[in-house]
Design brief:
Pfam families: Methyltransf_13 (PF08421), Methyltransf_14 (PF08484), Methyltransf_23 (PF13489). The protein has 14 helices and 17 strands. It is α/β, with parallel strands linked by helices and 409 residues long.
């Protein structure tokens, strides 16, 4: 394995080792205006590395956050699964923490308010922090108080100085995007009340490796967490994991509940840490064959698509997602195999996918054009999408689910 000169984002170790090199790819959410389709997309190296000191899996290239998040095309509210997950979690925390009008829930990277609106609707004060101005405007319009800023330790200290301390903080699919991990967690520690809880959700490195979910890797996702790596990060800032659970969201995620030291810790934490140690997730050997399995998946899927095209079948894709961008650009899938990409988000329709410039259209195009096969790029929401597209399937359309191995449904 190649040794990287890169320093670990969590502990500063300078002997990180390469697990997987996906080459140079465009930014996964850099959708292209058709008027600019003649210009090539900027590309950046995409390498996954492992830190032998703290076990954090991460990429070693850092694109300025402003280039990725100041105007952002991903709106969580277009996923029914995410909306239900958020509503259930908010309801659970309101009951568990006995939240009311004197409480405060804060969420860095609050997106369009899809989570916080559940607290606000129950009479619990909320504050979102969202760096993408286009999304922050939508949240404000939906009645969710939102600061249009990047969350940081400095911002946390300003909020504390203004008398704001959080009973509950959420960070769903955001901590993996943060270049300054220690600064972010220091901000969380500053904002939490002594009995407050910080709930982090992020894709689980174990599910990514075991399920060959390489398309979870893109420039926005700087880190891929294990319980082992997260425990070390929180410990550094006087925080302690008090509860952890695995969820199926995004192909397999961790939901980690963390509080200032001194709060009760349940049995789930030690149990998962022991599981990871037994699996060897704190050692490089666990990750050694990942690159080979990714290459095998690429060869199998590309061969399947090319064979279907050679037999005269038409193929589209569903889900102009970040993971879809990684998959297509790494595998070289473009207009030679696919006709278009359907996506439910009106903010993506009419744009072109980064790299291969495939047109992004409304899902109704699947019925109108009835491609024989549709490559499901958002395979992490497979059951939801297959249900939504029942009419297409009843008319004879078939979906290709690419991960962990290509299957036709």
């Amino acid at each position: 394995m190649k040794i990287s000169a890169y320093s670990c984002r969590s502990c500063g170790c300078t002997s990180c080792e390469t697990i997987l090199d996906l080459g140079k790819t465009p930014l996964a959410n850099a959708l292209v205006d058709p008027a600019k389709s003649g210009k090539p997309c900027a590309t950046f190296p995409l390498r996954l590395v492992f830190c032998p000191e703290c076990a954090l899996v991460q990429i070693d290239e850092e694109v300025p956050p402003e280039a990725m998040f100041s105007d952002y095309p991903y709106f969580s509210s277009f996923s029914d699964t995410m909306l239900q997950h958020a509503a259930d979690l908010a309801s659970r925390m309101i009951a568990k923490k006995n939240l009311g009008p004197d409480s405060l829930v804060i969420e860095p990277a609050s997106n369009d308010g899809y989570l916080l609106k559940n607290y606000a609707g129950a009479g619990v004060p909320v504050l979102g922090v969202e760096p993408a101005s286009n999304i922050a405007e939508v949240a404000q319009a939906n009645g969710v108080e939102t600061l249009n800023e990047f969350f940081s330790e400095d911002l946390a200290k300003k909020l504390v100085a203004d008398g704001k301390r959080a009973d509950v903080m959420h960070a769903h699919n955001v901590v993996a995007h943060v270049p300054d991990l220690n600064g972010f967690i220091a901000g969380v520690a500053a904002l939490l009340k002594p009995d407050g809880v910080f709930i982090l959700e992020a894709p689980y490195a174990r599910d990514m490796i075991d399920g060959v979910e390489f398309d979870t890797i893109y420039h926005e996702h700087l880190c891929y967490f294990s319980m082992t790596a997260l425990s070390a990060l929180f410990e550094r800032h006087g925080l302690e994991v008090v509860h952890v659970e695995r969820t199926p969201i995004h192909g397999g995620s961790l939901q980690v509940h963390t509080s200032p030291k001194g709060n009760p810790v349940d049995e789930t934490v030690a149990a998962l840490l022991a599981e990871e140690k037994e699996l060897g997730m704190d050692k490089l050997d666990y990750y050694r064959d990942f690159a080979q399995r990714v290459e095998m998946l690429r060869d199998t899927l590309v061969a399947m698509l090319n064979d279907l095209k050679a037999k005269g079948h038409s193929i589209a894709a569903y889900g102009a997602s970040a993971k879809g961008s990684t998959l297509m650009n790494y595998m070289g899938i473009d207009s030679q195999q696919l006709d278009f990409i359907a996506d439910r988000s009106t903010h993506k329709q009419g744009k072109l996918a980064p790299g291969n410039h495939l047109p992004i259209v409304a899902p109704e195009e699947l019925i109108e054009k009835q491609p024989d096969y549709t490559l499901l790029l958002t395979w992490n929401f497979a059951e939801e999408i297959l249900k939504q597209q029942q009419a297409y399937r009843e008319a004879g359309g078939k979906f290709i689910v690419p991960v962990p191995s290509p299957t036709i449904r």
